[in-house]
């Protein structure tokens, strides 16, 4: 009876994967939130957590990770399309959609238990989102927040 109430090491590992995915999604989402983008911290956290959740659950049912990845990519496509807005001949939100897509992949990686790769991917995504800032700084010699 008592042993049923205590989480097994497998359950603890699954829960750890979900929390790591949530935290790494928060890092990317925080950057987007600071830029006042429509897909902010909560959205990125939920996408990363959702991908990790589907991965953890699916691995318990079917160990074929390629099928899991296919399902996540298909699902995130709809969410990403919703982030893209066309206004007067201008398209906005493509970077947000791409970031959601990358964060879904991040959740998948953490969901299979590859924490270090997840951290490296988070750094890569975050760095990529800083390219405009770095470019503006190198051109002007000062930091100017415009995007």
Fold and architecture overview:
By secondary structure, this protein is mainly α. It has one domain. The protein has 7 helices and 2 strands; from the N terminus they run ααααββααα. It has helices at residues 2-5, 9-34, 41-61, 65-83, 94-111, 115-129, 131-140, and strands spanning 85-87, 90-92. Strands 1-2 form a two-stranded antiparallel ribbon. Helix 3 (41-61) runs antiparallel to helix 4, helix 3 (41-61) packs parallel to helix 5 and helix 4 packs antiparallel against helix 5 (94-111). The longest helix is centred in the first third of the chain and has 26 residues, at 9-34. It is globular. 31% of the residues are buried.
Relevant terms:
147 residues, mainly alpha, two-stranded antiparallel ribbon, 7 helices, 2 strands, globular
Taking strands numbered 1, 2, ... along the chain, how are they ordered across the largest sheet? 1-2
Biggest beta-sheet profile: 2 strands, antiparallel
Instruction: Give average pLDDT, whole number.
Output: 86
* Proportion of residues in β-strands: under 5%
C-alpha-based Rg, rounded:
18 Å
Shape assignment: globular
Question: How would you classify the helix and strand content by structural class?
Answer: mainly alpha
Query: Span between N and C termini?
Result: 56 Å
Secondary structure: helix percent: over 70%
The number of helical elements comes to 7
Strand tally, please? 2
N-to-C SSE series?
Answer: HHHHEEHHH
| Unreliable residue runs | none
Number of domains: 1
């Amino acid at each position: 009876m008592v042993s049923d109430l205590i989480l097994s090491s497998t359950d603890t590992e699954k829960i750890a994967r979900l929390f790591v995915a949530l935290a790494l999604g928060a890092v990317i989402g925080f950057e987007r939130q600071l830029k006042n983008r429509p897909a902010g911290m909560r959205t990125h956290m939920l996408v990363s957590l959702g991908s990790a959740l589907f991965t953890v659950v699916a691995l318990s049912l079917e160990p074929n990770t390629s099928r899991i990845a296919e399902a996540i990519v298909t699902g995130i496509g709809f969410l990403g399309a919703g982030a893209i807005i066309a206004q007067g001949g201008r398209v906005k939100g493509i970077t947000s959609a791409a970031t959601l897509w990358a964060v879904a992949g991040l959740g998948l990686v953490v969901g299979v238990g590859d924490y270090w790769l997840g951290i490296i991917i988070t750094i890569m995504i975050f760095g990529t989102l800083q390219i405009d800032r770095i470019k503006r700084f190198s051109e002007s010699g000062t930091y100017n927040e415009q995007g």
